[in-house]
Amino acid sequence: MKSCKLGYIFFKSLVEKLDLKFSYDFKDNVKFKRELPSINEGQWHEWLGLQWQDVVTSNAILEARIETEHPEVLDEENEKLEFQCRILWVSFMLTGPFYLDNAYFLTGKQKTLDIDVH
User: What pTM was estimated for this model as a whole?
Assistant: First the structure.
């Protein structure tokens, strides 16, 4: 598995018709999915504190990923991921019934199967 950087927006969707296993791949390594990624929960919980409960109860997730040689460095690659997620987020807000008050944007890295938060 190649190392990559990840950007996520976790939020709640009013659309419950989609199966929990549903996911959709957009171009440029952007994905909409319903299931939480395989994450290192202890680290994410410590990083987010009380907001962790809002993240794990999200039923809609936008994920953007890019392969990188330096996953631990926060740089313009992370900014690109954030921009991709936010553009898709705005598109969803314009076209569908989503909550606006509970979206959480997080970045992370993946070197093995577990995803670590930055």
Answer: 0.76
